[in-house]
Structures are given as structure tokens and as C-alpha cells.
Amino acid sequence: MGLILGYRRGSNTQYPGQVLVSAPIDRKGIYSLVGTKVVARDEYGNVYVGRVIKVLGSRNPKLVVAFRGGIPGQLIGRPVIVEKCVLR
């Protein structure tokens, strides 16, 4: 589980296809989530699928998740599911 915090932003640019997600995982374990699938659902039943592309920050790290086509602003503040797959 995670929580969408907002769009990834620069000083002059907002990236609507990428969002910041907080995950309740320790700092060392959060790097293992890079490449995993993330699923977000809205109240109408629409499903948005994305991937974790990188970790942002070192003291209080957040996940940067890229969604195909972006997500609507109504999903900011809503929970997402981070699907951790086990590789053998």
C-alpha cells in the first residue's frame, strides 16, 4: 500500500505522467521496489497501471511512479497498491 502525494514537479515544469508515492517501508527496503507494478483505482472503477521508476530522496524517500497517459488530479491523496513480485 502507498499514498499518492502529488505530481512530480520541477521549478518550472509539472510532470502529470509521474507521481510521488509514499510507501511504509524502511529506507533500505524501498530500493527493492524499483520496477514493480503499481495499481490505482478511482471511485468510478477506472484502473490506472504504472511502474516504479526510481526512488527520490534519501532521508525520507518517496517512490516516483510513471503511469501511461497520466492520472487525473482526483487521485491525489488516494491509496495505491504496490505489487511486489518475487523473482527466483
> Could you give the order of strands across the largest sheet?
1-2-5-4-3-6
What is the helix tally?
A: 1
> Roughly how many Å is the radius of gyration?
13 Å
- Share in β-strands: over 45%
Query: Which class of secondary structure composition applies to the elements?
Result: mainly beta
Give the overall average pLDDT: 91
Question: Which blocks of ≥5 consecutive residues have pLDDT under 50?
Answer: none
What oligomeric state is this?
Answer: single chain
Report the helical percentage.
Answer: under 10%
Q: Give helix and strand order, one letter per element, not per position.
A: EEHEEEE
Overall CATH architecture: Beta Barrel
Q: Profile the largest sheet.
A: 6 strands, antiparallel, barrel
Going by CATH, the homologous superfamily would be: translation elongation factor selb, chain A, domain 4
Shape: globular
CATH class: Mainly Beta
Distance between the termini: 23 Å
Number of self-contained structural domains: 1
CATH topology assignment: Thrombin, subunit H
Number of strands: 6
